[in-house]
Amino acid sequence: MQPTIVQRAGIAVSGSIVQRQPLQFRRLWIDLPTLVLVESGYKILHGEAGTFRVEAGQAVALAGGQAFDVTNYLGEAPSYRARWLAWERGLLEQWRAPAAGVRPQSVVTLGKVVPAFADAFTALTQSFDDAALPDAVVAHRALEMLVWLEGAGRLLLDDASLAPRVRRLLAGDPAHDWHSPEVAGHFAMSEASLRRHLAAEECSLSEILLDVRMSTALTMLQSTAQPVTRIAGEVGYQSPSQFAVRFRRRFGCSPSDIRRDSPRGRVALA
After folding, report:
1. Which residues pair with 161 in a beta bridge?
2. Residue 238's domain spans which residues?
3. Nearest one of 75, 72, 77 to 25, comparing CA atoms
4. CATH number of the structural domain spanning residue 206
5. In what order do the strands lie in the sheet with 50-55?
6. In the chain, N or C: fewer CB atoms in 10 Å?
7. CA-CA distance, 86 to 64, in Å (whole number)?
8. Both 166 and 151 in a single domain?
9. What is the pLDDT along the chain (270 residues), one digit of tens a residue?
């Protein structure tokens, strides 16, 4: 499995991860509702909802708008491998209301998945690049993955806070030179109101932008084979060395460490 990212605009985006050393990523933000299927090794997630261990052959769904400490372990396998799918919020909001008594959750664990689940996952991701398939068909396949979640729970949708909405705006173009007048205008508020609301959520526009850029870079390092210099440019850094400094400061390791082999059993804190 080669790391890659595929997308059908307005519907979903999917990627694969191949990691040959155990790494821990602190405060990793989940922007979009995301499904993760672990294929080898195992994943540990720790957040406000608790601690979750996802073994090879198991899956977990995560609501957007929350952060986790994430550790990917090789276990007895030569590498950690996983596939992920992130639904665009517009598609998820079309999903029918939960049945009576079903409480939306921030984390939905699926446990061991059946082969048909993995087949549906594969069919969906393969359809993203198939120009012969209309968006309606691809959207139907994306919604089919939500049907698989029905027996385990329903993901929470929560847009009450401003910071997650700002993150999604910035994540649409992380290389853009974002400034507070433009962002405040997008949300029909003054710059002072933007600063005040973000301060109430214990963050600032500059902090959000930096984290969006570093998180986007991490996803690209894990899920594509693009060179580090190109990834730096994609997230707004013309200087690869400056990018590497910011990345190490955020995750505790260099961009090249993400793709490097290391002795089994050592966990690099990122």
Report:
1. none
2. 159-270
3. 72
4. 1.10.10.60
5. 50-55, 42-47, 66-73, 23-30, 268-269
6. N
7. 9
8. no
9. 566 789 998 899 999 998 888 888 999 999 888 999 999 999 999 999 999 999 999 999 998 888 999 999 999 999 999 999 999 877 877 765 555 556 678 898 988 999 999 999 999 999 998 989 999 999 999 988 888 887 666 666 666 689 989 998 999 999 999 999 999 999 999 999 999 999 999 999 999 999 999 999 999 999 998 999 999 999 999 999 999 999 999 998 899 988 886 544 444 444
My answer on whether 176 and 136 are in the same domain is no
Burial letters 167-203, b for 16+ CB under 10 A, else e = bbbbbeebeeebebeebbeeeeeeeeebeebbeeeeb
Do 152 and 197 share a domain, yes or no? no
Number of domains in the chain: 2
Residue type, position 208, single letter: I
List Cβ<8 Å contacts ≥24 apart for 112-117: 112/55, 112/57, 112/58, 113/37, 113/57, 113/58, 113/59, 113/148, 117/37, 117/59, 117/148
How many other CB atoms are found less than 10 A from the CB of residue 154?
19
CB 81 within 8 A of CB 18: yes
Are 102 and 204 contained in the same domain? no
CB-CB neighbours of 128 under 10 Å: 19
Q: What is 232-263 written as a DSSP string?
A: HHHTT-S-HHHHHHHHHHHHSS-GGGGG----
- What is the Cα–Cα distance from 124 to 140, expressed in whole angstroms? 9
Task: Give the CATH number, domain containing residue 30.
Answer: 2.60.120.280
Residue type, 87: W
Q: What is the DSSP letter of 98?
A: P
Tokens of 209: 């932008």
Angle between helices 191-200 and 205-223 (to 10 degrees): 70
